[in-house]
Each structure stands twice: as structure tokens, then as C-alpha cells.
């Protein structure tokens, strides 16, 4: 049998051990909570810095693109020495790029900022169609400029026949083709997953219908680029 003193001493030792164990668990819990909170704050800070940095870069690109193309248009419009038929193509090209900076890039910046598409199917259709329209118009204007230069080099009479009407007709043809390429998805040439992709997956990209993809990529990139390369090769040979 233990004496009363021995029992009391044993009880005190157990109490001290329990207190130490509780303090250790409390310290560990506080450490884990503190580490988790610090990690969360660090993640938020990194995301905030990335968002601010991306917004500044995209905003600067939008502003510079708009100002640069606007200056080109103003220069051609105001200077009578620059207001010649062949520069009408440059003016129209600058207008197409100005449309990109004023309509396509701001909505694209919002899309990047949010990380998902939240504007619905109608605006997704409008945005992607404007994107295809402006980009197609830009590429086709480069093709029109190449055609104009090719005719100037290979046909001496063309320089004298290069009238505003001819160039404006070429510009009109360029915009008509760009419109024809860009509007089919609005009238239903879409893949079956379009609404699910926009409303559920929150993604907004041009129509993924295989037929439209073949048509659009050939009309807006492979076809024009191939012809441009051939024309400049012929211009190089003619010199």
C-alpha cells in the first residue's frame, strides 16, 4: 500500500505530464494553423500580383495598339502626299487592327482576368466572330497589299491604271470575304458541345465544328499565307 504522500506525489506528476502534453498539442495546432494561414495569404498575394501584372500588360497592349493604328489612319487622312490609292489599303488595314484593339482585346482581357467566360453564349458568339472577322481582314489586307505590289512590278500599265475605284473594290472584296468567314457560327455552324463548353466549362473559343475549322483555317491562314509567299517570290524573281 502506498502512503498518502506517495499517492499525492504520483498524482502531481501525472497532472504535470498532462499539462505538458496539452501545451504541446496546443502549440502544434497553433503552428499548423499559422502555417496554413501563411500559405493561404502567400497564395492570395501571388494570385493578386499575377492578376495586376497581367492587367497592366494587356491594358498597355490595348492602348498602344489603338493609338498606333489611329495615328496611321490620321496621318494618311491628313497628309495629301500619303493620301494616294495604294495607301488606302494601309488605312483599311489600320482600321481592322484598330477594331481588334477596341472590340476584341478588351473582352479578351476580361476573359483572362476572370479565368473563365461568364458573359453567356450570345456574347461568346459575338466576340469570337469579331475576333475571326478582324484577324481575317488583317491577313487578307496583307494579301491585297502583296497583290497590289505584284501587279505594280510585273505590269507597268497597272501603275497608271491604279485608281481609287480599283483599290476600294479590292478593299471591299477583302472585307466581304472576312465577313463570309466570320459569321457562319452565328447562324448555327457550331459543334454540338458549344453550349456545354460556354455555360458549364466556362470556355469561349471559335466553333470547333470540323467543317468550319477546315474552311476557316484555310481561308484565313493557309490559303492567304501561301499566296503571299508565292507573290513575293515572283516579285523577287522579277527584280
From TrEMBL:
Coiled coil: none
Cell location: Cell membrane
Limits of the G-protein coupled receptors family 1 profile domain: 68-239
Protein topology in the membrane: Multi-pass membrane protein
InterPro entries: GPCR_Rhodpsn (IPR000276), GPCR_Rhodpsn_7TM (IPR017452)
Superkingdom of origin: Eukaryota
Biological process annotations from GO: adenylate cyclase-activating adrenergic receptor signaling pathway; positive regulation of MAPK cascade
PANTHER family for the chain: 5-HYDROXYTRYPTAMINE RECEPTOR 1B-LIKE ISOFORM X1 (PTHR24248:SF200), ADRENERGIC RECEPTOR-RELATED G-PROTEIN COUPLED RECEPTOR (PTHR24248)
Name this protein carries in UniProt: 5-hydroxytryptamine receptor 2A-like protein
Biological classification of the source: Eukaryota, Metazoa, Ecdysozoa, Arthropoda, Chelicerata
Amino acid at each position: 500500500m502506498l502512503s498518502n504522500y506517495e499517492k499525492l506525489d504520483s498524482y502531481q506528476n501525472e497532472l504535470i505530464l498532462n499539462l505538458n502534453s496539452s501545451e504541446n498539442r496546443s502549440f502544434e495546432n497553433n503552428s499548423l494553423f499559422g502555417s496554413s494561414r501563411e500559405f493561404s495569404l502567400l497564395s492570395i498575394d501571388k494570385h493578386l500580383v499575377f492578376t495586376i501584372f497581367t492587367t497592366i500588360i494587356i491594358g498597355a497592349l490595348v492602348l498602344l495598339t489603338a493609338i498606333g493604328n489611329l495615328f496611321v489612319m490620321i496621318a494618311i487622312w491628313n497628309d495629301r502626299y500619303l493620301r494616294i490609292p495604294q495607301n488606302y489599303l494601309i488605312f483599311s488595314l489600320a482600321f481592322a487592327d484598330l477594331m481588334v484593339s477596341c472590340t476584341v482585346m478588351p473582352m479578351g482581357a476580361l476573359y483572362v482576368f476572370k479565368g473563365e467566360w461568364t458573359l453567356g453564349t450570345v456574347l461568346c458568339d459575338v466576340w469570337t466572330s469579331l475576333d475571326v472577322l478582324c484577324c481575317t481582314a488583317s491577313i487578307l489586307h496583307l494579301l491585297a497589299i502583296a497583290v497590289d505590289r505584284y501587279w505594280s512590278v510585273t505590269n507597268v500599265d497597272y501603275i497608271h491604271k491604279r485608281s481609287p475605284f480599283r483599290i476600294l473594290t479590292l478593299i471591299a472584296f477583302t472585307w466581304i470575304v472576312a465577313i463570309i468567314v466570320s459569321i457562319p457560327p452565328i447562324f448555327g455552324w457550331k459543334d454540338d458541345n458549344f453550349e456545354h463548353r460556354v455555360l458549364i466549362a466556362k470556355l469561349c473559343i471559335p466553333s470547333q465544328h470540323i467543317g468550319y475549322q477546315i474552311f476557316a483555317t484555310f481561308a484565313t491562314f493557309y490559303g492567304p499565307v501561301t499566296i503571299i509567299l508565292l507573290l513575293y517570290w515572283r516579285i523577287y524573281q522579277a527584280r
